[in-house]
Task: structure prediction
Amino acid sequence: MKRGIITNLLVVVIFFTGCIGVPSSDSNTGNTLKGVFGDKFLIGVAVNDNQVRGKDSLSVNIIQQHFNSIVAENCMKSALIHPEENRYDFEAPDAFVSFGEKNGMAIIGHCLIWHSQLAPWFCVDDKGDKVSPEVLKKRMKEHIYTIVGRYKGRIKGWDVVNEAILEDGSYRKSPFYEILGEEFIPLAFQYAHEADPDAELYYNDYGMDIPGRQEGVIRLVNQLKARGLRIDAVGMQGHMGMTYPTLENFEKSMLAFSSAGVKVMITEWDMSALPSQSQTANISDTVSYRKSLNPYQDILPDSVSSVWNARMKSFFELFLKHKDIVTRVTVWGVSDGNSWKNNFPIRGRKDYPLLFDRNYQAKPFVKELCTLSSDK
Ligand code: XIL
Result:
């Protein structure tokens, strides 16, 4: 009985201390995401250059109020941070890291080796031909040492390799793979660890609930571990839609990764409310086709919004259920207006994938979550 009272008191104290000093962005929301859930796992958000430079103050308010971790949406990708072999551009990444430090946030680096937004010079010589394995190794080492070394001790963890495993579990035929074979991944992890031995290192990918990819990633984790290389977590990007993934498959994958001996991070969470291209058999450029794929140009109908909110809430509850293996949940952008999903996989649509709407208001499921107590 007495123990029950003490536990209840403790819950109330934890709840209130979690929320004190955290101003609300929304008058209907007494609490904030990091206030309520910050002791379960990191609550992260991808930020862009305007935000870290304070040019988008409404977003900055939300970032400061709700999140305790940030990741660079673009500025650390090789094409931007290392546009020419002998030229780095550290202006935006430096501003990103300073912003995180000023706000006492866990700062995540994204991403060291990726085939997309790849610096054009990285894998080719002056004539545009593939470089030799030796040259590519040297370039990867220099790239990783320079970037990870610059922020040594300031970045909590790095997405070392992004999107290298295909749905059937085989390796993506990226330039890195074409030149170095499978070896490019262990090498990247080795270089990153040498450059900052204290930084956490992650493998990050999308569609991680797909069995083939999941198995491929687990094989990779096992190989890295067998070679004594550091890998702390697998990043499940979590770009979702209204019909995929299923909660069950997502949970199975989370548990499978955890059984392989790594933590799980939801690294790029968003949920498109729009019909997905794959559901349409024929992609032709007709007006009606375009309209059918961009159906909510004014507002998101309540019927769709309620399904979207319920689905998002279920996934967040799944992450909470597995808080012992989930160390971070990061959303891919602040508000619907600045989501990449408005332009992917089709340009110029109006999507509704994030936790805050175009008026910077928390979505219903976020308000609901923020009123939960911390004993959840
Ligand atoms: C996206 C950014 O959000 C866009 O601004 C950019 O134009 C393209 O890349 N997987 C990843 C992220 O790992 O880096 C991608 O980010 C989204 C998919």
About this structure: Confidence is low (pLDDT under 50) at residues 9-29, 279-283. The longest strand covers residues 263-271. The beta strands are 42-47, 69-72, 106-113, 157-162, 200-205, 233-236, 239-240, 263-271, 326-331.
